Records
---
Amino acid sequence: MSKDIKVKDHITLFNDERFSEMFERKRELYENAATKEEVAKTLEWTLGEEYKELNFKREHLVVNPLKSCQPLGALYAAIGFDDTMPYVHGSQGCAAYFRSHFCRHFKEPFPAVSDSMTEDAAVFGGHNNMYVGLDNVYKLYKPSMVAICTSCMAEVIGDDLNNFVKNAKEQGNVPEGSLITHAHTPSFVGSHITGYDNMLSSMLAQVGEKTGEVKDRINVILGFDTYIGNFREIKRILGLFGVDFIILSDPSYNLDSPTDGHYKMFNGGTKIADLKDAPNSKATLLLQKYSTVKTIEFIEKEWGHPVKVVNPFGIKGSDDLMMAIAELTGKEIPAEIENERGRFVDAIGDSYYWVHGKTFSLNADPDYAFGLTRMVMELGGEIKHVLLTNGTKDWEADTKALLASCPQGSEAEVYAHKDMWHFRSLLATDPCDFIIGNSFAKYLMRDTGIPLIRIGFPMFDRQFLHRYPTIGYMGGLNLLNWIVNTILDETDRKTMYTTSYDVIR
Amino acid sequence: MSKDIKVKDHITLFNDERFSEMFERKRELYENAATKEEVAKTLEWTLGEEYKELNFKREHLVVNPLKSCQPLGALYAAIGFDDTMPYVHGSQGCAAYFRSHFCRHFKEPFPAVSDSMTEDAAVFGGHNNMYVGLDNVYKLYKPSMVAICTSCMAEVIGDDLNNFVKNAKEQGNVPEGSLITHAHTPSFVGSHITGYDNMLSSMLAQVGEKTGEVKDRINVILGFDTYIGNFREIKRILGLFGVDFIILSDPSYNLDSPTDGHYKMFNGGTKIADLKDAPNSKATLLLQKYSTVKTIEFIEKEWGHPVKVVNPFGIKGSDDLMMAIAELTGKEIPAEIENERGRFVDAIGDSYYWVHGKTFSLNADPDYAFGLTRMVMELGGEIKHVLLTNGTKDWEADTKALLASCPQGSEAEVYAHKDMWHFRSLLATDPCDFIIGNSFAKYLMRDTGIPLIRIGFPMFDRQFLHRYPTIGYMGGLNLLNWIVNTILDETDRKTMYTTSYDVIR
Amino acid sequence: MSTIDKKQAEDFIESVITQYEEKTYKDRKTHIEVVEPGQEKCGVKSNRKSRPGVITMRGCAYAGAKGVVWGPIKDIINVSHGPVGCGQYSWSSRRNYYNGTTGIDSFGTMQFTSDFQEKDIVFGGDAMLRGLLKEANNLFPLNRGLSVLSECPIGLIGDDIEAVSKDISKEIGKPVIPCRCEGFRGVSQSLGHHIANDTIRDWIYEKDMVGQKFEKGPYDVALIGDYNIGGDIWSSRKIIEDMGLNLVAQSTGDSTFSELANVAQAKVVLIHCYRSMNYISRYIEEKYNVPWLEFNFFGPTQIIKSMRKIAAMFDDKIKEQTEKVIAEKYQPYFEKIVAKYRPRLEGKKTMLFVGGLRPRHTMPAFQDLGVEILLTGYEFAHGDDYQRTLEYLDSTTIMVDDMSEFEMDNFLEKYKPDLFGSGIKEKYQTQKSGIPFRQMHSWDYSGPYHGVEGFGVFARDMDMAINGAVWKNIKAPWKS
Amino acid sequence: MSTIDKKQAEDFIESVITQYEEKTYKDRKTHIEVVEPGQEKCGVKSNRKSRPGVITMRGCAYAGAKGVVWGPIKDIINVSHGPVGCGQYSWSSRRNYYNGTTGIDSFGTMQFTSDFQEKDIVFGGDAMLRGLLKEANNLFPLNRGLSVLSECPIGLIGDDIEAVSKDISKEIGKPVIPCRCEGFRGVSQSLGHHIANDTIRDWIYEKDMVGQKFEKGPYDVALIGDYNIGGDIWSSRKIIEDMGLNLVAQSTGDSTFSELANVAQAKVVLIHCYRSMNYISRYIEEKYNVPWLEFNFFGPTQIIKSMRKIAAMFDDKIKEQTEKVIAEKYQPYFEKIVAKYRPRLEGKKTMLFVGGLRPRHTMPAFQDLGVEILLTGYEFAHGDDYQRTLEYLDSTTIMVDDMSEFEMDNFLEKYKPDLFGSGIKEKYQTQKSGIPFRQMHSWDYSGPYHGVEGFGVFARDMDMAINGAVWKNIKAPWKS
């Protein structure tokens, strides 16, 4: 087949001379383009100190931010429950965007309805949309639960979800006994992780039923963690401990479902019965902190059982995770886990000389940023910049304390509310050896020539990575793999035409 | 720390002008070097058709072969048994080489003794070396089994292992009842996979004790498979089936042991008792064919129970694996396995458009070569060349039949006994889009500019890859990951300064 | 012979839509029709609200205005004005290719947002917007203008972005164009196109802006309604040039502000995506008396037909050159592509549900490869789009407007096509059913599909999708 | 104050070696001694056979001849003559860097083998070798010579590679050098060095070959015994040049056949690795009357000392230039490196067990950084090497010849050094014990370690190893 006519697509087609000439002519005659000198000069200027200063003076404009809006996170919390329809009360375009965003990251379908509010709803309120919307949802999809969040429009006009849902039930828009949870998730407050927190805490509050009986079981909350492999990994770990558990929001069924010839909208997840019974577990373990602020507060206050929050990345984080499980459950840490720890440490021992002394700048959501910062330092890597758009004060303080505790963090700068255009200035004026970030950070790689290690969300331009775990010792091995082998790959590329292009490294 | 004095090592140091000038001067004044024109002309010539023809006419010289020698494979078979000391009867340098080779690949210690034969042994035979050698081995390491193979010297002078071992036992060089297995593994016959086969089949023959009772259990033999993750993966799979099994040679304990502050020479593996009892299993399943020719023959003839051989890569291969387990054990294929199949197929569906129509040339050991060839075609990739140094006639026939069965194989060429210098000619005169090969194939990438997907043995210049499984559906996901994400990475590099540098792919 | 039996199909459709809530049922009934080749009128209702609680594939006006009209113009800064999400989700997702240095003289793959916070909702965002526009202009001095694309809250809190834009435009001496494309307006992306077209009209042509001066000639044409997905407009441009014409302005793919203004300077305006840009072409004809012509550069049949139609607007030199290039260069290439791919695709059946124009534009290209269309329809088409789709039918076809995913699942299950072409949201669920899929908004990260080279890529990709080896392996062999 | 207590150490050693089989015990007893600074004689026995069944770190004569002497010469084709393995395992594993185009004018990282098959064992390999050498010369015409490195079977089956080499050399008009380095010869790599040196002597100098003609001057020197691991010889060369000397030939790292021949053309031969190359330097002195000088370019103390020693062989111009470059360039750099790393390394303890020279060469560099040596020894040293090691001691030290891995494990367990420097086979088991490790044969994929820049890399790497964050995390925190 390969010897037939070969078709060139955009990746190579436009390199043909005919096209280059065409582009050049167009630029010259019609585009009113800046001169090449102007462009070169401006480019150089944007990479300098003067520009950096100007750039950091920005008060209003945000360029290439590292955050999305609340309802996205709310949908992510919702998709983790069995037989549950995520529902966006607001404009239909919002739902379309959320769904596309997730589809592009997970390469999986992401069901969610919207009640398609338009101009008239702006005037009269969105209650009618919700009544018809819920009616259709139950008729078409027969979910066990509907999880409603809001997008901007509903929030700006002040729709009252609680009231609407009550009415819908009373009016008979929905079947008797329908379970509907709802959370206000205004896009102009916080970010996607806030929405996750709002939705999850609302679900716990609205569905959980405390009976007084305490069950020998723990709840586990992973937070806004898009590495689907982690949901399987924590189950495997808890299985080794022999612990009974409930994961509160487990999207690993819906977002990693088989291709077997039959599309199923709902593939599993946390059972509704478990959600109801969660307050009666003897403790709750959380694997994220900054994406679950309200949730933690709620559980501590309302369920009153022991709560542990760990950041389960790297050696220290995984140690914390294992010890937290042991502490909450009274179980011994299994020998197999200890063996895995040893194998992870072993892998670090085998490879850390490629990381030690290299400098790293990071982009991520706060919980990942904290964990990766610590893990990079565990490998001997030095941190230059940790830059977030949705960092919180707590995160900032925690991260600064972490960096201060370690020589590899001594020169690091921390930014909680900056964007990737700020980051570009930082990288251009104070370069590091490697960037860690999501797919959008590829622009930074292009602009600064600094290689990118792809860890984060969204990950649109690589496949399968989210299927691997990143937590615990075995997840740590994957992170290590991505970090070390990217360094090795870049080293190869740098040395390919020199004698340092070693076969053994 | 990063702001201190920065040390440059070879990766960047010699780019400094001072060194370039020095190199240039040395070349000009002292090296008696060919002129740059001569070099350029010769380089071009070596990449052309005329050279290819000359190159393929070689009858004697072998350049950059893709095989190692028998005892290497024998040691690999031996290291998979619990409390077993691999023993090389021959020159000590051989053992040093085998051990280094494995250490570089696995980044793990690889214990093996040699009996250090020298000139006098050449004259008088190596029996005395073996007597003292065995004595020391038992005194120092107290193994439960010693597995002896030979290197060239012992084979050329015709040492008789069977006799030597008998004498050693009779003379009391070893403790009463010592278990010593031995295999002749001449380096001038076959390759490392032949040695694996010889050692394993000898162990089965020398240690296995057929009792007549048939146990509800199967034997599993993975062959010369250096992806340690596969040993864990097959155990996981068999665990899901609920099958009782013995893995015959399981190096995953010795070659992936923890760093916990205590070095242990022997970390586990197939129990000697299991090796003894293996003939009494009800069936044997083999996951390689070309590395276990003698072993298959032996089991079929001597143990007389059902034997199945599958090549467990990709969809078809994993299907075969699962059905073979089901058939041999009478168990149903578990729903979880079916789910994993669906997830693997799903991942292929999500990504195959990056592979479809791309052309691939492969280098590997025969079992991997066969499996990867088939899997690449399952992804829609087209095969150009499959080139091995240690291919067998069977392998060649099987591979040709496979290629003929699929349009993606219609233009492929198969070479069973060529080397990587032949491969260079093929790639230069008839380029493909991607090479699949081991670390040495990086030279082909440099010489031809064709990107390399690293799968195989040895893998010296990337870390951890051997810790992942490659077999079954979940192993397939790793292979898919390496293939697709390498393609994506190369696409990024090719398009970085064009508009095709997409964030979503 | 048609695969679709009209009566059976109608019964099936009825069985599906009766499952809706009653008003929804009544509404949906008017959006679906089984049509026949030769049929004169299409009765499908369109451009109506999607019903709440039904998973629609549609987006919003902002998506139409930003993603389609304003977004691809490379030398202006498009500010997503409002909360962070809308700009974030639409960032770099349309693959409107352009040449230029991003962040310096081009801004296509950047996300500029005002990142509204609660205080902005409460106190209004106008003051902030002023500051923002100036910051943007300072940090990106080579921009040729800015647009302000309103998100939902802006219209609801009563901000006056027009006033702000006027002021700043004066202050910085560059166009600043406010675009009221709040997502709640209208029923789909389509109103966004219209609104954005109106802003182009009002803020460019009504102000008589012109672009870079060029030497005018008799063969000057403009090409609009091509968004350069995967390089579409470039392979189209090549055809125009091969015909001997002069392409003086293109929009909005790989377009500049200058070209946008200069569209009206051409002798003829060629429009590819009629749905999203017809407003402008009609207006230009009216105001400047420049005629426009719709054309279709998908697949050999339509490419050749369109080339002749365009050539017919010009003199014999152009006509001859057109015939020459067809005969000498294009036809032989098309034949090779068809020879390779048609045998692999002949008789395959597809469903196509995309945007507001592409189904009827790509159907002939599918037919050139022997592929039958079982079902088609549009996310956001208008009545005339459906009407004009009829002419491309060559078998009984189900026509659906604003198909819900519920309907889609049922159609896929029932008819098991060899290919479904739609959007990213539809892709993975289709594939789970074992049905090959191509994203026909974004060319599934491939492209171009327009023009001569584009047809090769299109044919290759459809073959790849339909005949992908993986689809033979959907079922576990132990499940019989 | 020494960390090692002599009496305790001796008792401990005894307790370890008594576990051997009796003859082995007696033998090993003579290979280990606890030595003190100032001690005049070292009684350690060396260059004896390793005992069977004891895991030795040693390799073979082939490894010494190919890996060290012939392998690094870039423009000759080194044929590993015999079965495939020896060449395969030693392929690209020594990191002898070179400049050149591999496969065209340079062949360092290629594996040429005759891949002996059973028939070759039975019928002999001479005919095959003839064909092979001609094939190699035809396919790689820019080679400047070939070597034939025998593997074990060659010596055992009685092939006459000398005759073949002579014939082919005549036929192709290039040197073809047969080297009888069968792995069973001798007790370690060391004999391989000697044999290979002898072949250089016999086939180059005895034949009065000369290399590229160059203009001779008073400052011409040759540098031998540097294998350019990670670029060592390049940073050494830089020092030589900085001193105002002319380096006219180097060997064998990044060396050519021409340079090898021209070593004898220099005014002085500088030898770095005395162990592997002293045979040649002695011979050249005898035959050509060219004096030789041993030097050491590891670490500030020895670099400066060596530079002065070398300068002393020349006139004042060189001496002045040497002092100038030390004072102005090297000393300030050394101070910076020491200032950064010594505080991090002061008082750390290491064990070093490598090759035949490096321990005594690198000890002063460790001492420059404040690191104490607890134990050292050589894989394949001779008596004089041990003798000369004494002068570098600054505390009580255990000296072990041909240390077995059994002994090594025991020493590591007992003394828990902060660093162990040895080879790849020893690396991972050391690390399992939680003890940092550096491969001191190959610089652990780093380098150069020679010369001024090399000291920086050395210091950085030792810090990295010893103070690597991972070593704090060996123990699970729940294990107290």
---
Amino acid sequence: MRAKDYNRCSMCASLFSLFAVVFLVFTGTVSLVLAAGAYKVGAVFSVTGVASFLGEPEKKTVEMVVEKVNASGGINGHPVELILYDDESDTTKATLAVKRLIKKDNVLVIIGPTRSGESLAVAPIAEKAKVPLISCAASYKIVTPVEKRRWVFKTAHSDGHAVERIFEYMKNHGIKRVAILTVSTGFGASGREQLLKYAPKYGIEIVADERYGPKDTDLTAQFTKVRSLNPDAIVNWSIGPTQILSVKTWHNLGMNKIRLFQSHGFGSKKNLELAGDAANGVLFPISPVIVASLLPESHPQKKTVMDYVREYTSRYNEPVSSFGGHAWDAIQLALSALKEVGPDRTKIRDYLENLKGFVGQSGVFNFSPNDHNGLSKKDLVMVEVVKGQWVLAQ
Amino acid sequence: MDFIQYLFSGLTVGAIYALVALGYNIIYNVTEIINFAQGEFVMLGGLLAVFYREVLHFPLAFAFLASVVTVGFVGYFFERFVIRYAREQAVLSLIIITIAFSIVLKGSAMLFWGKDPYTLEPFTQGEPWIIFGAALQRQSLWVFLTGTAIVVGLSLFFSRSYYGKAMCACADNPVAARMVGIPVRKMIMLSFVLSAAIGAAGGVAITPLSLMEYDRGALLGLKGFGAAVLGGLGHFWGALVAGLFLGIAESMCAGYLSSGYKDAVALVALLLVLFVRPQGFFGNAEVGSIKRF
Amino acid sequence: MARKLLRLESVSRKFGGLDALRNVTYAVPEGVIQAIIGPNGAGKTTLFNCVSGVFPPTSGSIYFDGVRIDGLPSHKIAALGVSRTFQNVALFKNMSVLENVMLGRHRQSRAGFLACGFRLPSMKREEQEIIRRAREYLDFVGLVDEENKPAGSLPLGKQKILEIARALATEPRLLLLDEPAGGLNTAETEQLGDLIRRIKKTLGVTVLLVEHDMNLVMECSDLVVVLHFGTVLASGTPSEVKNNEKVIEVYLGSAAN
Amino acid sequence: MLTVRSIHTYYDSIHALKGVSIHVAEGEIVTLIGANGAGKTTLVHTICGLLKPSRGSIHFYDRPIHVLPPEKIVSLGIALVPEGRQIFSTLSVEVNLEMGAFLYRNENDYAKEMKERMFQRFPVLRKRRHQLAGTLSGGEQQMLAIARALMSKPRLLILDEPSMGLAPLIVAEIFKIIQELREQGTTVLLIEQNARSALAIADRGYVLETGKVVLEGTGEALLEHSEVQRAYLGRETSRNWEV
Amino acid sequence: MRKKDRIVFLFFSLFVGLFPLVVASIKAVSHYIDVMIFAGIFSLVSIGLCLLMGYAGQISLAQAAFMGIGAYCSGILTTHYGWPSSLALMVGLVVTGVVAYGVGVPSLKLKGHYLAMATLGFGMIVHIVLNEEVELTGGPSGLVGISGLGIGNFQISSPFAWYYLVWGCVATVMLFSLNLVRSRIGRAFLAIHADERAAQAMGVDVSNYKVKVFVLSALLASFAGSLYAHYVEFLNPGSFGLMWSIKFVLMVMVGGIQNLWGAVIGTVFLTFLSNEWLHFLADFEVLIYGLILLVIAMFIPQGLVTVVATKLLKKGLRDGA
């Protein structure tokens, strides 16, 4: 071996030891000062990354709720300590964040992650460590099969609920032949799966099944193909720009005679602004929290929802989203469990599993050992865009 | 009728690819560098136009111009403070540098505009035209016209104008170019400014059609690069034809085959072309052989 | 005369509009030092590149020891026993002097990925052998004291010699030297001439030499061929060539301007 | 007009020029001869600004030019016909010529007029005007390179090995052109390996060896010099094998 | 292995071996062991990429795709067909090897930007297939229920077991690679990197070696992918997209492109940086990440470890003298 190599290697060696020393000093000096007797609640949200528009309101909501609880004296006299990590919409990071919450922070219950992918990735970890996890994501796979998900709950509507709500509406309005368009992301794929699964149950024929990418700039081809099949209605399942694009394309191709249904992801005022006139006539199911002011006074959630909307909008000066609602439900579930059974992971789990009639933002939760979601299609309302405004659909 | 609709859709998307491809070609023609940040110029162009229009309330034409000029300045900055210090490095480093710069642009755009998509009003209002039963949006025509005008303009610039020819000379033989008194550095700078401005123009033109958000650049850049390679790197008409070809192929594939696999079809076509005919559709094998020796 | 080791039959090579070689037909007998001379651009390096497989001739055929080699990739030609040096010194500059020569032993060694990765005994033995032989060649050219230096740090003269050592390490039967004396001073050139003669005498390698330095050519080559504008103008022993009418005519033509 | 004072230049960490001094007076043909690797081309590149000397100075009409970028140096009236011709091989003959007049790009008819003159002097280029320069034969390429350099009406023309790779008849033609140029008032610095031809037309000459000037004198004197004869003109026969 | 490599290797083993014992005893960093498991898995990829890029001089923007192929082979075979994990891992290697060979033969004839484009295109195609073949891969929603790693009744489940398994693999691969680059094959790689023409003239079958090292790097990525699949027990295509391929290139470059130790250190460094130390940057992270990459590529293209090592070396020499 030549001299240069020798030196390079010995330098590597010293680097390694240097690295080791720095590392140990670093790790040694980090220590956590904890509020005595605090109840520790962990949270993992996609605050940045592609899903940040979901994670951001979730984070804000949870922070708001925890602050309020602590301001009013905590739970049974114990302050709540919220430990929140950002998974940056990345499965690896979500995995590590949950492990960190369990090992380092030793939390009693975990809220999140935001999206289905991350939730599915961390569910086995929570299961193994026997820590209750309340996901804010949609996929039904997060809580099934129940025997493998004893410690995992979720507060978002399963895509199936939204699909069933749409199909129910169609059935009532005599719509039979339906074309579906889905985006090739986790959200779209899950929607597609449910659409195909529930169609026969409501006597609906899927005449076209088209897909597109989340960054596609043009959907004309897909809509043209659908138009040629002359369906009664179209269901588009996506979030982000393609959702607006689908509405615009539908409008521009003069397809207004074919009704356009969107997923529950369409429920944001921003979408109305971006789509403009084109959105008139679009139908979609949505969580009550978004349309709080439209709900009749008799609606069981009216008060809960209006309170949250008022608080959130006055604090952050932005409209609420259904995602924030999921986080509200999750943290409130966690807090009510803590209040009832105290700081015991197993008791929290058992409490949640048997909780009934919990009034949240997304609906009224009725959990059971076979259902860790606790919501049904009835908890969604159908909304139509009329003259640039949301109205409850008939 | 469907066929024509697919064609319209393909031509519109293809024109965008062609515009991005042109940006690659300009820089490549002068420096033989592939600027992987090209797609981000498109994204910046679109978002800046929204900013000028919606926030500063410029008239649309002026917002267009302001956006193009601003992005041109970004191109200048990139050349002056990054590329100039790295030009001598290996191809690998240059690839990483341009990718890194694209991440920086994307990160900055995210901070500035957030992650929401934005839209812009169409250049001309009105319902789409119906041609042979297929709807053609007015904005599509704008995109197509912008693309074609820029290709024609660039071809003329590089084949007729003194500066254009001098830029070709820089690419051909930078040492000889310096020896006849061509300020090579300025030409390189010009190429970056020009390609950034063209990317921005494309970005403004497509925003009314397909919206724009901070992370749109990468995919557009990739498709544009595909078109550039397919047409033969450095070949302007090649870029236009290849861009339109890719756009139409995708649209037809989505219409008649599988919409999920349309991107894969375009990529497979690209790989096959790379393997069989690395100089692209229009690249001149003879020119290639002259260059090599 | 000995049998022909290398045979070119109407070899042509075009670059764009340039004819670098036109119908070159020529043969190199085994065991000689053969020089190729001619002005820059006469096609000497092109001829080397065609023979060593850097690129194929546009037309014509090349035989090495009876085997047709035109169009073969250069590592196959190398495996048949043709090795070369490059006009602009193509050493692996970041590798040490010894490692450069060890690379020359590449085709004499067999160890595969697994043997190398796990350092199997067979590979260790082979590596020892490679080092031993590489040192022999360094010793032969007189660079053994420099074996641990990076090749790029040597002065040009030594780099040229190292390149020859590396080429010799492949145990060639034909060695192509492309302007080995370019950039060398008189003393270095003399040493080089000595080395080239020793290569033929001691190792029995046939040497094909492109060179500008006429002293070197005249002193050490057995045969000379004059390439001119892509064609063979004349060939023979050095003295024959010097007195060749055509050669005199062409070159005097230019000198008498 | 051109004065090079003891310059040192490094090329890829090789000390290629070790204190070279030369000068060229107006109207002269000065030749620089030497073997491969003696530093001839490095010297030319240093004069033209493509390489920067680490020490020493270069003055052109008393103006220091070793600090200027190449495009500035060209604009002062120094044009180079580089070694290996370095034409723009993927551009047409015509565009190659136009590029030679880049400095006069703002003068409307300058390029056209000069192009016409070049076509008159080199009729073969007119025939090939639309061809890609890379497809020309070696001689034609050399003519093109010279014509391109002349497009900027230089006061000093530097030719780096113009005879390289050319047939003797063409070499003769090129040397004839060089002489004509001088007669029309262009000063010429000629770098050549073809020492005999070069010295025959040169007023003065320098011999460069491993980065140093080892001899200088008038063309005839050098031709007769025994050292030069031994090293560069062939020892016994005086025939120029070396080229 | 040579003597001086042995010293480094000793340090390395000592550090890696003691690491979990130390961090496990400190509550605040007890989860670092999990980060290190990921870092180890990624190190396998970057060692392969280092051989390919640093030694043989060929670029690949498809490493994440190869990782994905391995991971999904493991995932699909264990979930849909109930194969034992170790067998699935082997099949993943075979499949990746065949695919890499098929892609490598035509791609590696290309150079520079074209090679980058070809590998990038291939990576995208794999990503699209993972997204679209919903029946098989679960599509974008991901593949759940992948079994853990184990042979027969012996299952690797505790973090310690995983840690030592992963880093044991890294150590083995490191040894293998060190031996390889200090052998005739490593010399051939370097020669190809420096001058393909000269390497070929010395009898090195350039295209053959390029394909072989490409396949080797793909196999390492595939192996890492399988480990990832069995460790996380969940897969989705997002983990194997273009961004990840670029991240692997970055990991290698940060450490030092022609330095196997650098590749590992760069990987560990960046994994900790993005998972632990840059958290506080939140939305600025993308920007900072891009800037770090830019600065490194512009000013220290030879890599951090190499530069630091050279600096230390020079200082050491001065002090010593």
